[in-house]
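## Example record

The block below lists the input lines for one assembly entry, exactly as stored, with component labels intact.
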Amino acid sequence: MTPSTAFRFILGLIFLWAPLAAADSQNGYVGSMVCKTCHPDVWFTFYKNAHFKSVASGKEKPADTGCEGCHGPGKNHVAAHGGKATIISFPSLSPKQVLNACLRCHSESLARANIRHSPHTQNGVACTQCHSIHKAETPKFLLAKAQPELCYGCHANVRADFSMPFKHPVNTGFMRCTDCHNPHGTFAPTWRMAARPALVSHAFGNEEACLKCHSDKRGPFAFEHPPVRVEGCEMCHSPHGSTNSRLLRRPVVFTLCLECHNGAGNFGRSGTGDPSLSQAHNMADPRYQNCTNCHVRIHGSNSDPLFRR
Amino acid sequence: MTRPIWFATALLYFATCCAAQEVIAPTPDKVGSARGDNWDGYNIINSFETGYRFFSVSGNQNTYRSNENFGNGVRLLSSFLTVNSKTGHGRLFDELVLTTEGLGGDPYTHASLRVQKNRIFEYSLLWRKSDYFNPGLVTGGGQGEHLLDSSYTLQDHDLTLFPQSRIRVFLGYTRDSQGGAGISTVQLFDPGGGPFDPTGNVFPVFANIRRVENEYRLGVELHWRGFTFDVTRGWQDFKDDSQDQFAGASHGDDFHSNTILNLFNRAQPYHGTSPYWRAALFRNNRLLSFNARFTYTGGQRAFVANETALGVNQFGLADNQQILTFGSARRPVATGNASLSVFPTEKLAITENVSFYNVRTDGNSAYLQFNNALQSTDFLYYQYLGIRTAATQTDALYHVRSWFDLHGGYEYSNRRIAASPQVAFAGTPSAPFLQTNELNTGIVGFRFRPLKPLTISLDGEFGHANRPFTQKSDKNYSALTGRIQYRLKTLQLSAWSHSDYNENSVTISAYSSHSRTYSGSASWSPRSWLSFDATYSKIHLDTLGGIQFFANSQLFPNQSSYYISNLHSGTLDIRLSLLQRMDLYLGYSRVQDTGDGRSVATQTSVGPTLPAFQSAQTFPVKFQSPMARLSVRLSERVRWNVGYQYFGYHADFWPAEDYLANTGYTSILWSF
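Predicted C-alpha cells for the full assembly:
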C-alpha cells in the first residue's frame, strides 16, 4: 500500500465514521421517567415486572436499566415524538437480534448455557415468542401464555398426546412441560445414542428426566433390566400420553415383552439374543399373558434375576 | 336466517370432528382490579375461587379413577396472591407470589410460592400432590392383578442468595414421596427347588407402599469477565420400606394347583444415597459460545429382603418357606459435555458438541440367600452392567438470506456395553461380554420464509447403527419433520408432519416400525370477545416384529407380532365474552383409535392364530370430552362460575373398561 493510498483509506474511514459518530452522539439516554410520559400504561405496572430490579437497584448504568436497558437510548425517540424507527422495537428485530438483546443480561445462567444452538433458536424462535415482557400472563418467567397452552401453540401434536385417556397430568397444571424439557436447550443426552429426543432436561448424571419423579425406578439394582438403562424408558412407555394404561406402547403387555424376548439375533446383554420364553410359559393360557403378574419388579430387582420379587 | 344456520352447522361440524382438551376448573377468567390495592408501599392482588365439584360415573369406576379421578366435595379450586413492593425496596421482600389449585380434595393439587428481595434472596417453593390410582389395566380387559391407590407428593424448595451479584449461592431441597395401598402378586416358586409351589401359581398380596426420596443441594455460581462457573454438590437419599402381606387362604390364579397360601409377609427395605457433583463452565456471547459440564453421581443402595410364607404345598402337605437376602448395589455415573459454538459471520453458526457418559452397576460379587425351609444357602451373583458412550456432533446453520436458512449436521456415537450375566464363583467374576455399537447420523434441513407471516421448515435425520441393543432399537432409521406456520395478527395456522421409520433386521424376521404423525391447528380471534382454537392430529403407527413362543407345550417359531394404530385426535375451543359481563367457554376433545378397521378382535390373517395374539394387534378406542363453562361477573370483585364436563371412554374390544362420567362444578371467584 502506497502512502497516498493509505492516506485516502484513512480519510475515507474518517468520512465514514464521522456521520455515524455524529448520529450516535445525537442520541442519548433520557431515563425511564421520560418514557412514562407517553407510556404510562407500561410504567405504572412496571414495578411488578422482574426487570424493575434494574431500576430499583439505582446502581446500573443507563444502558443497563429501565426501558432503555432493552430499547436503547431514547433521546431521538423523544425528539421525534415517538415512532418505531427511532427506538429499538422488538417486533421489528430478527430472532437473532432479539436473542442478542436478551442475552446481554440473561446469558449468565446454566439453564441457558446452550441457548445459542438450541433447536428453538435454530428454528428462528425468538425469546419474545414465548415471553411477553409487558403483557405477561405469568408473573414468573413472564410467559406470554401459561403452560401448557404456550407450548401447544406450536406443538399441536403434543397437545394430542396429552388428550389421550392415559397421560401425565399436564393439562391439570400438576405438571408442566418444563418439568421434563428445557426450552432454552440442553446438553446433548447420552442415555440413548441418537440425538433425539431434543430439549429433554437431565436428571442426575445425564439420566432421563423421568427419574426425577419416578425415583423408585432409578436403582441401582443388583439385577438391572438392561433395556431400561441402555435404551431408556421410552422403549416401553410413551411419555406424554397413550391410549394404553401406564402409558405403555402396547395395550397388552405380553406383546411388548415378546418383541424383544424372542431369542433372535445377536441382541441383548450377552449378544446371544434376549432370552425367549421357556416351555412353562403357555401363551394359550391367560395366566401367562400377564407377564408383570409374576415379573413384578420389571424395572430392576435386588433379589431375583428374573424380577419376580 | 341462512347465516345462523350455516354458522350452527359449521359449529356442529367442528364439534364432531375436532376438539379442545382443557380442564373445566378452575376458572381462568380474572376478577377484580388488575392493578390491585395499595397498602404500606406494597401493591396486593388477591383472589380465591371456591366451590363445589360433583361427579357421577356409570360403567367401570376403576378406569375413571385411573384416567380422571375427580370427586365430589367443596374445593378451593384456585387462589392467587401477589404482593409487590412499589419501590423495589420493601422491608421484608419486594415480591411475593402465591398460587394454589385444587386444594381440598382434587386428585391433582399444587401450590407455588415465590418470595424475593432484590439483591438479597429469591426463594421458590413448588408443592404438588397427585392421587394415583391404577386398577391393573395393563393387561387389557381388567385381567391385571396389580392395583395401586397411592399418592405422590412432591415438593421443591430453592433459595438463591445474592441473585444479582457476581457470586450467587444456591440452596435446595426436594422431597418426593409415595404412599398408599396396593395389591401386588407373589409366586412361591422356590429358588432352591423345594416342593412348595414349583408350578408358577400367582397369589395376590396386599402392599403397603412407602417410598421417600430426599435431595439436598448446595451450589455456588461465579461470574468473572463473561465466564460463569457453576458448581453444585447434592445428596439424594432414597428409601423404600414397602411391605407385602397376606393372611387368609388363597388358591392363586392356577385353578389346577393344590397349593394354598395362608400367610405371607415380605419386607424388603431398600435404602441408599446418591451423592453427586456437578461443575460447569460457560461463556455466552455473540462471537463465541462455550460450555463444559461434568457430573459425577455415586449411587449406592443397601437392601434386605425377608420373605415368609405358610400354606399347603402341591402335595397337600403343610409347608413353609422363609427367604432372607441382603446385599448392596453401586452405580457410579460420570458424564461430561463440552460444546463450542462459533459465529464467524452474522450468517454462519457452527457448533461442535462432545459428550461422554460412563455408568457401571456392580456391588458385592455375590450375596447370600438363606432358605430356612430347605436349610440351604444360595449365592446370588450380581449381573454387572457397564455402559460407556462417547458422542460427537457437529452442526452448521447458514442464513443464506433473511428469509432462508440451511442447516446440517453429523453425529457419531460409540457405545460400549459390558455385561456379565453372572460370575462363576464368588469373588471370581467372569470376564464381561463386550459389545460396541456405532451410530452415524446425518441431519439436514431448511427454513423458508417467503412471506413475513409464513414459515416453512423441513428437517431430516438419517441414521445407521451397526449393533442395536434390542430388536426394537434404532438401526436404519429416518425421521422427517415438516412444518408450515402462518401468523397474521389474530390468525394463526400451522401444519406439522413427522415420520419416523426404523428397520431392524433380525434372524427370525425383520422388525420394522413406521410412525407418521400429521397435525394441524388454527387459532383465530376475529373480535376481542370471540376466539376459536382447533387442532387435529393423526398418529399412525405400525410395527412388525418377529416372535416365538410356546403354547400348549408346542413351540411356535418364526411368528410375527403385528400392531397397528390409527389415532385421530382433535380439539375445539370457542371463547365468547357477552355484554362484558359473561364469559362462555365451549370445548370438545375427541381421541379415536380406529385400529386397522376390523370390527371383531380376532378378524385378521396376520400373525399367530391364537386369539390372544390376534386381539392384541390393535386397540380401537374412543375417548371424548365435551365441556362448557359460564362465568358471570356479578360485581367488580365477584364472579359466579358453573361448568360441566363429560367423559366417555369406550374400548371396542374390552367393553368392561368403558365408563361414562358427568362432572361439573359451581364456584364463586372473588378478590379482596
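Strands of chain A lie at 166-167, 223-224, 241-242, 300-301. Confidence is low (pLDDT under 50) at residues 15-23 of chain A.
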